[in-house]
Structure formats: C-alpha cells, structure tokens
Amino acid sequence: MKNRRFYTLFSLVVMLGLATGCDKDFEQINTNPNVPNAVTPNLLLPNIIRSGANELVGTGWSIGNIVIQHTAKIQFVNEDRYLWGNINGIWNTTYGNLRELENMYTIASNSVPVQRNYQGIALVMKSWYIALATDCYGDLPYSEAILGKTGVTSPKYDTQEEIYNKLLADLETANGLLSPSNEAIQGDILFNGNALRWKKMANSLRLRYLMRISKKKDVKAAMQAILSNPTANPIFESNADQAALKYLPTVPNQFPTYTYRVGSIDEFRLSKTMEDRLKAYNDPRITVFARPTVASAAAGNPTYAGIPNGLDDVSALVYNGGAQNLSRIGTAYYIDGFGTPSDRELGIAQGMFMSYAELQFILAEAAQKGLITGDAKAYYEKGVKASFDYYGLTLPSNYLTQPALAYDPAKALEQIGTQKWIALFFSGLEAWFDWRRTGYPALQPGVSNLNNNRIPVRFIYPTSEYSLNKASVEAAIQRQGPDNINTKVWWEK
C-alpha cells in the first residue's frame, strides 16, 4: 500500500515535470520562421496587380478584341455574333480584390509610421478595378460592397455617377499620398517600387476617367488643374512611364494566352475591319498584330488577310478559301507570348493598365474640344509615334502626311478616335469603352449577328446577384434600364 502511494506520487511529479518541460519554449518551437504570422501590404500587392492584368488580358482576348473588331472568329462564333451569356470574370476578380485592397489600406493605415505609399497604391488599384467593373456593367455595389463582416450581406448598388465621383476623389487623394520620400515599396511587380510612377498612373487615370464622363459633366476645370501643375500632378511622360505589367517566361507571371491550347488560339484571326484600315494607311503595325497567311507564306509571297466579324459557323470556316488563307494573331501574343528579353522591353506582350499613347490621344481630344490648353495636333502625333515606338517600329516619314491622317481640325475627333482604336489593340476592354463613348471608328455590327444589328454596350449582371442580392440588383435595373447587352450605362447615355 505504501509502495503504491509512493509510485502514485512519483508519477504525478514526473507528469508535472513533463508538462512544465513541454510548455517551455512551446511557441518558439512551434513557430515556422518561413511562414508569416501577419499579412503585410507587400504580400498582398503582387496578386492584386497580377490578377487584374491577367483578367484584363483574358477578357480582352475572348470578348474585347472581338466586339471592337480587332480580331474575329472562324469557329465557335457565338461571341462574335453577340450571343453573350454571363461574363463574370471582371466581376469576380474585382470584388475579390476589393477585399484585399481594403485589407492593404487598413494595414498600411495602422502601421507605425503610417505607410502612405501603400495607402496610395491601394486607392489607385481600387479605383482602376471599380472603374473597369462599372464600365462593363453600369451601377454596382460599391459603398457597401465589402461590409459583410459588419452584417451588410445585401449591399446596395451605387449609381455609376456616385461611383465615378468616389473613384476620382480617391485618385486625387492617392496623388497626395504617394511620394518617393515615403516608405520603400516592396512586392511591386508593376513599377518595381517606384512611387513616382504610381503617382503618374494616378493622375493619368484621372484624365482617362474625366474624359470618360465628359458627356455628362463639365470636366474642363478638373482636367486643366491636373495639367497646370505638373510638379504636384505628374503624368506619364513617355512609354517608359506607362502602367504595363511585363510578363516573364515562367509561372506565375506568364502572358496568359501562352498557356492556351493551339486550337483555342487559332479560332481567332485578324478582323477584316482592322486589316482594311491598316492596309489603307500602309501601316506596318499589321506585322505585329497578325501573321501572314499560311498559304501565302508557303507560296513565298507573305500577305495578311482578315475575316469579317460575325459570320455564321459555316461561312466563317470557308471564308476566303478557308483558314489557311486567313491571318492568325501575331506571334507576340501567343507563340512568343512570354517574350524574349527585348520583346519584354518593347512591351508587346504585356498586361496594359494604361499606355502613354492612350494618354496622348486623351489630351489631343481634350485640346481639340477646348477642355484644356495645348496643341491638339502635337498630342495626336505624339500618340501615333508612341504607339509605333511601343511595338518597336519606326514611324514612316510619310505616315502622318497622308490625306486621311494629316491632322485636320474638321475631322480631328475621328482621326484621334481611329488612331486610338488602333493603338489600343489587345489592351483589354479600353477600346470598347472608348468606342461606346465616341463612336469612332464607325463600326458595323457583325454580318450574321444575333442582336438585331446592334453592337453590345455592356455585360449583364451575374446570375448569382439575382439569388443572393435580388432586391438591390432589381432596384439598379429599375433605375438603369433592362439587364441586357444593349442598355447604355450612365456616361454614354
């Protein structure tokens, strides 16, 4: 009995010792030094940039290039005939990243000292994402969009006017926050930590979005204020400044189409609309946008040939004698999509958030309309040259002296709009947005379209909104118009 009590007491002492020993340095032993315990802005930023660029490239490839007649399809032609269902990629990517951007901004704000550059970057990317989404769909959840943790599970849809007011204010705030003298920026796969380039992007985007709403609001003072103080409000000054994600040969930063099946790539060919325009101008950019037809290359006489948009399946497959007589997309966008080092520097296969050429055409239009002071002709010619430079091409000496291209105030807006459309080749959806606003160039609906001879002007809301947020989406439809691909959004009405 005595021995039993002794062993029981001994066991208790041993167990207590083991328990105490196990607890000693427990947290240190069980902490993986290679896994962060707290998220920081530099960990969130790469995917925020990458996922936005990739979605822009993917949706641009499948819909944007088609609807704006940069490319056309030779099979599986529903998109080219405007038989559009739900196109949810932009929606899902936007709202997924709005949560991350809110986290990024909050973390930067709560840091000691406050990380002003990360705050500014969060506002720039947040504004870019929501502008992309609202230009696709119209009215959207925004002010209540990411308040689920507070109990807001059915966010209201803000009007597009309200959204634009907020994003323009956020970009102005971002401009004030961003500075090379603030904290170092890490995780920046877009500008490699250059705060000044983020600042230039903020102000260049302000000019893009002010021009976007210029039919609905007087933007003259706001645009001129940006340009009148370049020290406080710097903008892109060359192609070296523009916001373009340079893709690399390896994952996760490969050009998205590089991973597509060959058959999926070959469904897309040069649009005859683009072919006709480039050939009329003797424009060498056709050599970047497309490849010579297989048949002509084999015959030793390489030529480029496009196909009309919106043909039915049978007509598309046999047009001009078949696929061997139609130009595929340029190699830079697929076969060489990852780019050689020199290609990457030229920027041929990039995720284009906004280009310097686009900015010059915005300024040309603004000057022509009297919204800003400046030489509209000079801006126009800078835009054309910037586009050629971007593709590593020399601007022919006689290009801008051709009757159709020599700057003429009487037809300047058409000239600017058409050159902007060419320069925006495979730049996501920006060419579509701009065409909806300006009507340039004059496009005809696809030949055998299924939309009553109308080119679509928006995406329909995701089906999930009707089951998860029905009252809010129906209120937006009541205000905006029917939820179909022909209802214009606020800024284009």
From TrEMBL:
Q: Which InterPro entries match?
A: SusD-like_2, TPR-like_helical_dom_sf
Name under which the protein is recorded: SusD/RagB family nutrient-binding outer membrane lipoprotein
Organism phylogeny: Bacteria, Pseudomonadati, Bacteroidota, Cytophagia, Cytophagales
